[in-house]
Design goal:
Oligomer: single chain
Bound molecules: nicotinamide-adenine-dinucleotide
Strand order of the largest sheet: 15-16-17-14-13-19-20
Radius of gyration: 25 Å
CATH superfamily of the largest domain: Aldehyde Dehydrogenase, Chain A, domain 1
Structural class: alpha/beta
CATH class of the largest domain: Alpha Beta
CATH architecture of the largest domain: 3-Layer(aba) Sandwich
Low-confidence stretches: 499-503
Strand content: 15-25%
Distance between the termini: 69 Å
Number of domains: 2
Length: 512
């Protein structure tokens, strides 16, 4: 490493302080664009995990009792500070996750929009009152905070997942402990500096780094009210099990295998442009990246020819180079896993039309973790490459007779995150929206990511449980419906017995 390259010593942030804990083991932090070591990440344990939740628990009562307009001041300040620091935060994502700098800027912009949504909390947190459920008695639903929430992030969206969890959780009055991925922790270091700069009270947001040991410590931690995750399906299921044993609330978004259906009237230029963005953007490491393409025969050959030509022109290289289209994948292990799937596809009998293994990159990047655009044709739904999440820039093209064939494939797949269709036929559009067995549907878009004002999440194995992020659902998850049954007594009359009819009303209303 050159003398000018900073060495990033990632630290936990607990109770308003950066923690220097030299007793913890560390993992190296790599630059995926070059393979060089960038720094080190502490591997937290039960002790560091519990220190963070204890700090959050201590901060909770005062934060919960902070008047809502004051709490919202912090959310507005967070929004303004993010707008000011947009570029440095995007750089942080581009450095360790090696998301292409243009996409990193897009991710930060999306988080700014999510925080706008969090600014609607005062409108959405309002409870309900049912007056006169009996004489002088009303029923009230109060959307109350719950205490300490903990969040676990995947490597591929370090900023977005922060946005999905923290502004909503703390805006409604909870405190938070966040565990970034060990592969992309830099963004949250920048966010903690930002939260400190706006004067967020200590302990309201805490960061603890590490892997599963940190999370597993929360399952029996009495300070923890709930855990949320964005990650792979096996991780979501493991957390559901762990949290289930003590009844902790969970919001667990899992893995994906997204289909794109191409009909005979697909607008071809738009389709190609969107498949490139969706399939190769972030090097295919998006939960809404297209992976399986179901194409009707009338347009199959033209589509494949056009897609191949466009894919051959995709430039691969350093995530910081604005002139390349696609950066590296996250790690050496990820590169090897994707290359293994390419070999599996060949062994299964699919046609490898474009082989992304060992793409040409610039001098200085040869040790980076690159896989270029890869296209298989003649794929069938029962092949491993069509069934399993590859999480890389690999497209599997299958032939289907009509829309029903595409819908059947989507229904039969155990994952159900997103699915898109390219067509101009109104009947097919409505049919696809109604029948595609996924949580998020796109029409003539390659990435069907809902706007922050709407809920985001899949179904089937892509979501464990049924809580989704963003929108009203995102706010509801971080609150509990507390119900109050309230009788008022006229102080002038004191405990005067109510008329007989009222007593029976009260009996029936409290009976259950
Ligand atoms: P991962 O599941 O390996 O790790 C996610 C997080 O969970 C990390 O912070 C990790 O430290 C932690 N973790 C790993 N194993 C654990 C365990 N057994 N118990 C508790 N915590 C554990 O996922 P990843 O490789 O970081 O991210 C890619 C995955 O995330 C893909 O499957 C992708 O589809 C998914 N993802 C889903 C969405 C969505 O919206 N559904 C969005 C982004 C990413």
């Amino acid at each position: 490493m050159s003398a000018t390259t900073p060495y990033y010593k990632i630290r936990d942030f607990i109770n308003g302080e950066w923690i220097e804990n030299n007793t913890l083991e560390t993992a190296p932090l790599y630059n995926p664009s070059t393979g060089a070591v960038l720094g080190e990440v502490p591997l937290g344990n039960e002790e560091s995990s519990r220190a963070a939740t204890a700090a959050a628990a201590q901060a909770y009562p005062a934060w919960r009792d902070t008047p809502l307009p004051k709490r919202m001041d912090y959310i507005f300040a967070m929004h303004s500070a993010m707008v000011e620091r947009k570029e440095s935060l995007a750089q942080a994502i581009a450095i360790d996750q090696a998301k292409h700098i243009a996409e990193a800027r897009g991710e930060v912009q999306r988080v700014i929009e999510i925080i706008q949504m969090a600014c609607t909390i005062p409108a959405l947190i309002q409870g309900e009152t049912v007056p006169s459920i009996a004489n002088n008695i009303s029923g009230r639903i109060i959307k109350a905070p719950m205490g300490v929430f903990c969040g676990v992030a995947p490597f591929n969206f370090p900023a977005l997942v922060f946005g999905w969890f923290i502004p909503f959780a703390i805006g409604v009055g909870n405190t938070f402990v966040y565990k970034p991925s060990t592969e992309s922790p830099l963004f949250m270091q920048g966010i903690m500096e930002l939260l400190t700069s706006i004067g967020l009270p200590q302990g309201v947001v805490n960061i603890v780094h590490g892997d599963r040991e940190v999370v597993e410590a929360w399952y029996d931690d009495e300070n923890v009210a709930g855990v949320c995750l964005v990650g792979s399906t096996p991780t979501a299921k493991a957390i559901a099990q762990g949290c289930g044993r003590n009844g902790k609330k969970t919001m667990l978004l899992g893995g994906a295998k997204n289909f794109l259906a191409v009909m005979d009237d697909a607008p071809m230029d738009l389709l190609i442009e969107n498949v490139l963005m969706s399939g190769y953007g972030s090097a295919g490491q998006r939960c809404l990246a297209v992976s399986n393409i179901a194409c009707v025969p009338e347009i199959h050959d033209e589509f494949v020819t056009r897609l191949l030509a466009a894919s051959e022109n995709v430039t691969v290289g350093d995530a910081m180079d604005p002139d390349v289209f696609m950066g590296p994948v996250i790690s050496k292990a990820a590169k090897e896993r994707i290359e293994k799937y390419i070999q599996i596809g060949l062994d299964e009998g699919a046609t490898l039309l474009l082989d992304g293994r060992n793409p040409t990159v610039s001098a200085g990047n040869q040790d980076g973790y690159y896989v270029g655009p890869t296209i298989f044709t003649d794929v069938t739904p029962c092949m491993q490459i069509a069934k399993e999440e590859i999480f890389g820039p690999v497209l599997s093209i299958m032939k289907v007779g009509c829309i029903d064939g595409a819908l059947r494939m989507i229904k039969n797949h155990p994952m159900g995150n997103g699915a898109c269709i390219f067509t101009q036929n109104a009947y097919n559009i409505e049919k696809f929206i109604n029948e595609a067995d996924v949580g998020m549907v796109g029409v003539n878009v390659g990435i069907c990511a809902p706007h922050p004002y709407m809920p985001f999440g899949g179904i089937k194995d892509s979501l464990v449980g049924n809580n989704k992020v963003q929108g009203k659902e995102g706010i509801n998850f971080f609150t509990q419906n507390k119900v109050a049954t309230v009788r008022v007594v006229d102080p002038k009359e004191g405990q005067v017995a109510a008329p007989a009819s009222t007593n029976s009303d009260v009996r029936s209303c409290v009976a259950s």
